[in-house]
Amino acid sequence: MSTSAPQYVKESITPLAELPWPLLKAVAALADAPLLQIADRLRQAMLPYMGNSALVIFTEDCTGRPQKKAGDEGIISRVSIAEMDAVRASLPDESPWFGDAEIAGKARPVLAMKHAASNALLVLTNPYPPGPASQAEIELVTYLWRITAKRIQEKVADAPPSYLLESRAASAERLRVTAELTDMHSTTLETLLAALRSSSLDDSTARNTVTDLTAKALVALRTLSDRTTDLVEEPVANAFERLREDLRPLTRFSGTEVEFIEPPLNGRALPGEVAHAARAVVRGLVLAMMEQPNVSRIRTQWDCDGENLLINVRDDGRGVLAPDAPSINRLDRRVQALSGNLRIEVMPGWGADVFVALPLDPPSRPAGDVAGWNLAARELEVLQHLAAGQRNRTIASTLGISENTVKFHMRNLFKKLDVGSRTEAIALAHSHGLR
C-alpha cells in the first residue's frame, strides 16, 4: 500500500510576485519601530494610501513625549496638547472622522481616529488620497493605526532604562518651561485686568468686554498648565488602580490570589515615568513569583513617604526566587534607571519578600566632567542654554548670534554627543549636572 503525496491546489495560492511586498515591508518596519521613529514610519506606511501634510499621535502613555510627529515642520512644531485634546473630545468612537479642526493655530482639514484601549489619538492634516477615498483605503489606514497604537502600548509597558531616563528629563523640562510661561502670561494678563478695571477708563463697555476676554484667557492658560501637569503626573491612587486592572487577567486565570494594599489617598502624585516603572516592576515580580512552587497568594503594597514610592511584594511560595535570576536583574535595571533600589529577601519554605523604593524627584547631581565631549566654548554655551529649556531664537538673542549660527552649533553638538534630538541632548546634559 503506497501513500501518495498530498495534492495542493496551486490556483488558490497567490504567486509570490503578486504579494503586496511594499505594504508588507511597511507593516514589518512599523511593528518593529522604536518609539522615537514610530510616527515617521507610520506616515511612510500610510502615504501611498492616504497622503497628508503632517501626522501627529497624541498618547498619554508616553509621559516624556506625549506627541509623536512627522511631516510639515510648520505644523508639527506648533501643534499643541490643548488642540489634540479638543479633537479627541469631539470623536464619539474609534471610527475615522473627516472634518475641520484647529491644528497648529489654524483651522485645517483632518482625518482623526482614536484607539479605545489606550485613548491614543491620530490626526492627519490635509488628508489627500491618490484618488477618491475608498472604503478599502480607509480600512487599511485604520489597520495601520491600530498596529501603531498597540506597539506604543507595548513599548511603554516594557520601557528600557534609557527611555525612562529620557522621559524623566523631558517631563521635568516641560513642567519647568510651562510653569515659566504660565507665570509670565499670568502677570501680563493680571496687569491688563488691573488697568482695564481702573476708574480712569471711562469707556465702560469696552472695559467690560476686554475684561471678560482677558479673564477667559487667564482661565484657558491655567487650564493648559494643569493639563500639562496631568500628563507628567499621576495621582498615586489612580496609578495603583491601573496596576490592579493590569493584573486582573492574571488573578482571573492563574488560580493565585493577589491581595492589593492601597496607598494613602492623599499620597503625593507620581511622576509619569515612576508610575509606569512601578507598574512594570510589580507585574514582573508577580509573574516571577507565580513560577515558584505552590504559590497560592501574593500580596502587593504601595506607600509614599513624601520622597519615595515604596513598593512591597511578597508571596507564600517555597522561597526559591533567586536574587540573581535574569528576570529580577531586568527589573533591578529598571529601578536603578530611576535612581531607586530593589532588595529581595528569600526564606526557604516561607517565600520571597521584595522591597522597592523609587524616588519621586530626579536626583540633584553636581556638574560632571564634560571635557570628554571636546566641545568648543561656544558649543558649551549653547548646550547650557539648551539644557535650560531655551529655544533657538532665545539662545541666539542671548548670545548675540544668528539663529543659523545656533543651528550650526546644534548640529556639531548632536554629532559630538552622539544624540539625535534636542530631548536626548537635554537628558544627557542633565545627567552631567548641566541645568
Automatic annotation (TrEMBL):
<dbReference type="InterPro" id="IPR016032">
    <property type="entry name" value="Sig_transdc_resp-reg_C-effctor"/>
</dbReference>
<feature type="domain" description="HTH luxR-type">
    <location>
        <begin position="369"/>
        <end position="433"/>
    </location>
</feature>
<keyword id="KW-0804">Transcription</keyword>
<dbReference type="InterPro" id="IPR036388">
    <property type="entry name" value="WH-like_DNA-bd_sf"/>
</dbReference>
<dbReference type="GO" id="GO:0006355">
    <property type="term" value="P:regulation of DNA-templated transcription"/>
</dbReference>
<dbReference type="Pfam" id="PF00196">
    <property type="entry name" value="GerE"/>
</dbReference>
<keyword id="KW-0805">Transcription regulation</keyword>
<dbReference type="InterPro" id="IPR000792">
    <property type="entry name" value="Tscrpt_reg_LuxR_C"/>
</dbReference>
<dbReference type="GO" id="GO:0003677">
    <property type="term" value="F:DNA binding"/>
</dbReference>
<dbReference type="InterPro" id="IPR036890">
    <property type="entry name" value="HATPase_C_sf"/>
</dbReference>
<protein>
    <submittedName>
        <fullName>Response regulator transcription factor family protein</fullName>
    </submittedName>
</protein>
<keyword id="KW-0238">DNA-binding</keyword>
